[in-house]
Amino acid sequence: MQDVTAVVLGGGRGTRLFPLTKLRSKPAVPLAGKYRLIDVTVSNCINSKIERIYVLTQFNSASLNQHISRTYRFDSFSDGFVEILAAEQTHASSDWFQGTADAVRQALPHLENHPCRDVLVLSGDHLYRMDYRRFILEHRRTKADITIAVKPVPAAKGHEFGILRANARGRITEFREKPRGQYLTEMKTDTSRLGLSAQEARRRPYLGSMGIYLFKHKALKETLGAEAHVVDFARELIPGALKGLKVQAYLYDGYWEDIGTIGAFYRAHRDLITAVPRFNLFDGNFPIYTHTRFLPGIKVNRGEIERSILNDGGIIERSVIKRSVIGVRSRIGARTSIEDSLVMGADYFDETEVCGQRMPPVGIGKGCRIRKAIIDKNVRIGDKVVLENRKKLRSYDDPEERFYIRNGIIVVVKGAVIEDGFVV
Q1: Is 4-272 assigned to CATH 3.90.550.10?
Q2: If one looks up domain 299-418 in CATH, what number appears?
Q3: Which segments in the chain show pLDDT lower than 50?
Q4: pLDDT, tens digit (0-9, with 9 covering 90-100), for 327-366
Q5: C-beta separation of 116 from 4 below 8 A
Q6: What DSSP letter does each residue of 239-305 carry, written as one string?
């Protein structure tokens, strides 16, 4: 795959994932206690032998840039790289990225430094495993100008996707953004022609775009150059390309999740701790790569652990942890109960004296009760704190901006300090 360059879109604001995106870009949001969302997409590329990867960044990009530079370093005998391309002012453009297509347009001069046959355009915030080599081989077999990865979905989920309609040969003939009612019904495709069984084809007759595009390099340059006003792939470039280019569908029927909301993010982590998760981290043939930390193993002095993921560098005292993910360097005090929660951990081992003031150490104190919560990184939670959403609120903004409630889930902001005895 030396003639393929990947471009990962990582510049969106991620407003639906707020407050996890309050201080970082969406692809930099921690995943499973030790990874970042961007690691999934980059690992898919590396496992598919695609090693020339550009990551386009824009909003709150500092932590993402730092993670990329620390994590992905190829050896001296390889021409592979993972390189950040931040939005920049040039003689050709003085604006930030105006959309997904505009971001790739502004990156085109950099792509010319490494001539390639095809350009793979990816999102940096989806959870899935895909061997892109099969995708690329199908793209070349059909001699397509553009190939779009699609997921078969039932009618009940059709309005959540951009829906594509394809003919019997897999050529895309129409695109509609999140259609409903009759507009959705008119977009049915015989998905059995694309590889589903007859039964599954009846259940899932719609093709949802996964936001994964493979372009002939020439077609990408010509399309973006000819349509200078086009700024978005889904809403503008793809519908326009259907008029004159050969656009094919590539059906993918594995696990794929756009974890763009707090609810979806929480549910994805709930799935990770099941006995047989749909996205399996324990896959030695297709690993997820991330920053190497050289941390000691987690130390559990005493406690009750049930169906949870514990990451390195933590110390757990006499606590109860059920159906939860505990991140790197987590410190959990005695007599604390954590259920159905995600604790992201810390970026450092803590010194409790901060700026001359005595604060709770980074971690969770003694005698706390935490349920259905997401505790972001470097949070300081004192003793006897209760985070249970006792009022059953669906949404709430703390006036002091220490925590928020979204979809009924408490989200404690990165670096927040929660004093002893606080109750939600």
Answers
A1: yes
A2: 2.160.10.10
A3: 89, 91, 355
A4: 999 999 999 999 999 999 999 998 655 545 578 999 999 9
A5: yes
A6: HHHTTTS-EEEEE--S-EEE--SHHHHHHHHHHHTSSS-SS-S--TTSPPP-----PPPPEESSEEE
